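Exercise 3.2. Students should predict the tertiary structure of the chain below and write it as structure tokens, then compare their answer with the key that follows.

Predict this chain's 3D structure.
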Amino acid sequence: MSSTDIDIKEAHSTSNDHDTQKAELHEQHEVFKRGEGQVDFRTVSWIRAGVIFVKIIFATGVLSIPSLMYELGAFPGAVNVIGWTLLNTYCAIVQGNFRNAYPGCHSIADMAQVVGGPILKEVVGVLFTISYVIVAASGIIGVSTALNALSHHAICTVWFTFIATIVIAGCASVRKFSHIGWLTWLGFASVYIAVFIIVIAVTTRDRPAAAPQTGDFDLGYRVIGNPDFATGITAAATIFVSSAATSAFLPVISEMRRPKDYPKAVYLSMSVVTASYLTFSLVIYAWCGKWIASPSLGSAGTTVKKVAYGIALPGLIVSGCLYVHVAAKYLFVRILRNSRHLQANTAVHWGTWLGCVFAMASISFVLACAIPIFNYVLALVGALCFAPLAITLPGWLWLYSHANYWKGSIVRKTVYVFHVFLLFLGIFLAVGGTYGVIVQINAAYRDGQISSAFSCADNSGSS
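Answer key:
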């Protein structure tokens, strides 16, 4: 063997040793360890992770976007769907790359600590918890709306909301994302089939179910809408939030078998979501115009509405379950991290976990009763919480990891400036969107769309 061959062999061996050491060091920083006597949380494949991601963001968006097309118009609405989903996909990849570079980060709050210290961590942690509690409230509203539709409003809506909360909390109490995995398959399929039924149903009617059934009527289809600022920014914030729950992807990475497969799961989920949002919302809007219901499953008449809600009910429950689970898992890890109880079947472990789940569900119940209009709940969480979490903070994470780009070529400086722009885009959407939602909610109370908080009226299905 020549000296050159020996040198190559030694270099290869050194490289392998370095990779092994790097992998071991990476493993030491993972939140959930692998070892005997510990509950193994890291059992999620990338395909199952992709389905979980789809279910986290799909149900609320596909039920809300069609009714927003009338406010914005078909073309601006489609541009908003494509633009926001592409941006949210990119920001999800940024977050995942940062997490894999710092494997000790279980949540977006942990990442905030890396770039901004403990105070920023607490601020982001509060935003993260609030955001998923509010989105869980939208899931509760969806389930209570379905129960109202199936029962002809047999009991007070508050009771249906309470029942929805108990069912969602029960499902959310399952500890591992891998064990929720089979529920996400069922949930995604049920909502997808239900919306597909609505698409077929509206295209076979002579006129929308909510429109006058005799005489002339205005369909209200507009290629380009003419909303005022409050209406337009609320609609944009609602479309944005339909794919903005990317911070919920991060806890799933900590439970993946191979965290490096995370980008595959993101691209799979976002491709399905974008295609579905565009096709379903544009077709329903083209046939229903301004007569679309919100949530959109009520757009094809009473009978079809019952069928659609009956099929979609498991999916709506799973959506609420995932949101409560994500919020509870964040608190659970914060409380028990670096404790033996984090991965041990002890009374402290189970007491903390169930306490977190039912506490988050209880707060969501109160919010669902206080703001029972589906689109406004989504717009509020989009502006107030997800804009800084899903746009501003990922921009900051990238700038932290690529500070040298500012001293590079013109192309690198341009990329750097784009991420600075993300900081301000998130701030603008947070301030403008929150203002718009508050104006819309006040108008809804004034006009009687919302009768009162904790009312028995079925406000959630308002068009």
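Discussion points: The mean pLDDT is 84. The chain has one domain: 39-461.
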